[in-house]
Amino acid sequence: MADAYHFEVRIFDCSIKVETPWVEAHTVLQRYIFPSLPRIDNAADKPDISIRVVQAADEFQLLADDVVVASSSRAIGLVPDLMRIVDDAVVQRLTTLRAVHAGAVVWRGRALLLPGGTHAGKSSLVTELLRRGATYFSDEYALIDSEGLVHPYPRSLLVRNGRPEQKPMLPAECSASIGEVPAPVGWILSLQYLPGCNWDITAITQGEALLTLLRNTPHILAESPDMMRVFERAVTRATCYAGCRSEAADAVDHILQLMAS
Predict the structure, then answer these.
(1) Tell me: the pLDDT tens digits for 36-64?
(2) Distances (CA, A) of 84 to 33, 164, 216
(3) Looking at the chain, which terminus has fewer C-beta neighbours within 10 angstroms, N or C?
(4) What digits encode the pLDDT tens for the residues 193-228?
(5) Predicted model pTM
(6) What DSSP string runs through 183-239?
(7) Domains of the chain: which residue ranges?
């Protein structure tokens, strides 16, 4: 069967081609691959990455550049692996921006960065902040330019909500808007999730915050010659903290109080 459904999308320096012959898969791909960005129906250039979803036996298979990378009985079950593949493709091709593993939202014109690796709880904090009125930038990567400004990276959120598996979510499900213009960094909070922990943070220097950003830089970008300068400019205007927190709702109560002070 020919690939009846297809579209392309471009984000920063990466072009992504998407194809599938299955309407269920096409609906999922359209919904969760950078849904706020325009679709390119007849792009002439060769894409940087080709994504296909096909069926084999009773399962959907996800292919990246014709290599099977995941399978699931339902198309939506492919989304977490799909997002990781797309993230890697985008980050590898960044030319003018530098990436750090961090949740990122905007509050009253300034960006809040929540650096942390896998299972750090970035998405749960971002989701709760969106419910309280923050503007969405990303739940996985903060993308920072040479002036230290953070740019929106409008991927779909991947949330666990206490479950081992991740579930895709759109900012609109939290009645949140997606950022459209870069923002200066106002706050950096490096928070460790500890169940049952009381909110316990301390102010840290901008130099310590810079080191935190460097520790959460993807390996492929860790040796970029301008990384230090980019992060120095990012932290210059930021108030920075580190510590531990418990559940997202309680933590966000404290975060909002902190940002209001």
Answers:
(1) 999 987 665 789 999 999 998 889 999 99
(2) 11, 16, 16
(3) C
(4) 988 889 999 999 999 999 999 999 987 666 677 888
(5) 0.93
(6) EEEEEEEEEEE-TTPPPEEEE--HHHHHHHHHHTS-GGGTT-TTHHHHHHHHHTT-E
(7) 5-92, 98-260
